[in-house]
Amino acid sequence: MDVSSRVRSGWRLLKGPEPWSRRRITGEAALALALALMAGGTGLLSGGPLRAGAVAAGVAALSLLRRSLPASVLLAAAALTMLAGETAPLLLIAAWSAGRHIIGAGRALAAFTGAFLVYLVVGVTTLWPIAQPILMGIFGTLFFLAAAVVPGLTSRYWSQRRTLLRAMQEHNAQLLRERAMVAGQARLRERQRIAQDMHDSLGHQLALISVHTGALEVDPELTGRQREAVGVLRQASVSAMHELREVVGILRDGIEAPAAPDGAQPASRGTAGIEALVAAARAAGNTVELRGSGEPRPLAAAGDHAAYRIVQEALTNAYKHAPGAPISVELRYEPDSFVVEVVNGVVDRAAADQAGEVVSGGQGLTGLHERARLVGGMVHAGPTDDGGFRVAGVLPYGAADAATFVATGDDFRQQSPALLLGDGGPVVDWNIAEKELGMSGRSRGGGVALGCGIAVGAVVLLVIAAVVGLFLLAGSAEKGMIDPSQYDKVKVGASEAQVREQLPSGDTVLTSGLAGKGPAEPEGSRCLVLMSSDTGEGLKTEPVFRFCFKDGKLIEKKSYDVAR
Question: How far apart are CA 91 and CA 99, in angstroms?
Answer without folding.
Answer: 12
